[in-house]
Amino acid sequence: MLLSLDSGVSALEQFQQSLNVIANNIANVNTVGFKSASMSFADTLSQTLGTNATSSTQIGTGVMTAGITNNFTAGSITSTGVQTDMAINGNGFFLVTDASGNPYVTQDGEFTLDSNSNLVTSAGQYVQGYSDAGLSTVGNIKIDNTGAPNGDTSPMQSYSIGSDGKISVLLADGTSFTRGQILLQNIANPEQLIKVGGNLYTGLAAASPAATVPAPVAPRSSGMGSLVTGSLEMSNVDLAAQLSSLITTQSAYQANSKVITTSDNILQTLVNLVR
């Protein structure tokens, strides 16, 4: 079989994958906290036709995927006016857990309060941080009147979340206190994180030095960014760049389909020689 046919087929397969990546990026142009991906290529093994004293005569056999990497540059921060919406201005990820306690990280800060006053994601995962007024215990964040000084049981009147993640609660009797603090997870190698859908990532150990996941820390400390409440970080997809990549990938796909057509014509000519 002609090597050009193998090369053309491999190219069509890889450019189809590239189109899939680009299409997914464009589909998530308005997804909160979404990080775009890009695909890189590498050549496959070459067939050696011969060697001499100074060089080898080789012909390539096509292309393969070298990797698909996520781009973790920050997206734009957009004001929503919703008190529980949060964006990270700088480094860090929100740490959340599911009902079984499995940890995930995300930069989607579209949170809400559930029926038990837990701060949760849109899919119900629990936001993690200091869950007590003494800022000593890491767990599910609750926003209520628990932990008020002197055992005050007045109902909560309002609350606010500072750029350092501290949650201040104002009670009906005018007493205010710090209820807890949202913490951020530092990820040294975010490119090693694994997407699991719902704007969540797992694989925290693989993305951490020496496979040891560091403890979450307060915003505005240890190199972490600050929280911007009432705002969300939008997708970092550059639509113009993606459309440009779409055009070049389509052109490359068409060119390689022409290689296959030409190879097929040559094979047809060879077959017709025996008639």
What does this molecule look like?
By secondary structure, the protein is an alpha+beta fold. The protein is built from 2 helices and 20 strands. The strands form 7 sheets. Strands 7, 8, 11, 12, 13, 14, 15 and 16 form an 8-stranded antiparallel sheet that branches. Strand 13 and strand 14 form a beta hairpin. Helix 1 runs antiparallel to helix 2. The longest helix has 34 residues. The model has no long low-confidence stretch (mean pLDDT 93).
Kindly name the structural category. alpha+beta
The oligomeric state is single chain
- Tell me, briefly, the overall form: elongated
Number of beta strands: 20
Beta-strand fraction estimate? 25-35%
Distance between the termini: 20 Å
List SSEs in N-to-C order: HEEEEEEEEEEEEEEEEEEEEH
The pLDDT mean sits at 93
Strand and helix layout:
Elements: H1 3-27, E1 37-43, E2 46-51, E3 56-60, E4 63-70, E5 77-79, E6 86-89, E7 93-97, E8 103-106, E9 112-113, E10 119-120, E11 126-130, E12 138-140, E13 156-161, E14 166-171, E15 176-182, E16 184-185, E17 194-197, E18 200-202, E19 226-229, E20 231-233, H2 239-272
Antiparallel strand pairs: 1-4, 2-3, 5-20, 6-19, 7-8, 7-11, 7-16, 9-10, 11-12, 11-15, 13-14, 14-15, 17-18
Helix pairs in contact: 1-2
